Amino acid sequence: MNLPQTPAVRRIRLLSCLLAVACASTAALAGKPEWAGDGNGNKNKHRDADAVQSRVEVRFADPQRAAISDYYGRQRAAGKCPPGLAKKHNGCLPPGQARKWQMGQPLPRDVVFYPLPREVRVRIGVPPAGYRYVRVANDVLLVTVGTLMVVDAIEDLMAP
After folding, report:
1. Where are the domains of the chain?
2. Where residue 97 falls among pLDDT bands split at 50, 70, 90?
3. This prediction's pTM
4. C-alpha–C-alpha distance, residues 153 and 59, integer Å
């Protein structure tokens, strides 16, 4: 539908064009929010400082370490081995390369791990959200649920 080119129609078209340009330029002139980077990978210093301050470190607490050491110490004194090591018949010593895991790294695919015995789980409580406790040979590890990254460890539980 073509409207006649009256002065009023021209003014309306001109005003709508000016309004469209004004809206577009307002969005282009808007500054970045505080948390946005500068495009070179540099973020706002205040945000980085907040991130460092809010970092939470997940570790075994002293009472948990004591409960785990007590349980496995009693097992060792009674001559009992964890299930994976009992069948080795070598005095509860882990295989030659038992410690294939590294702190801060995911467990390798070939590492066999076991859940902790119920008595230990009851004594040490529920792990933090997103984490789980596992036993690898003579070590108890705190690992992340998705990647199985080792966050903390209690080592050589069955060693004399």
Report:
1. 62-154
2. very low
3. 0.56
4. 8
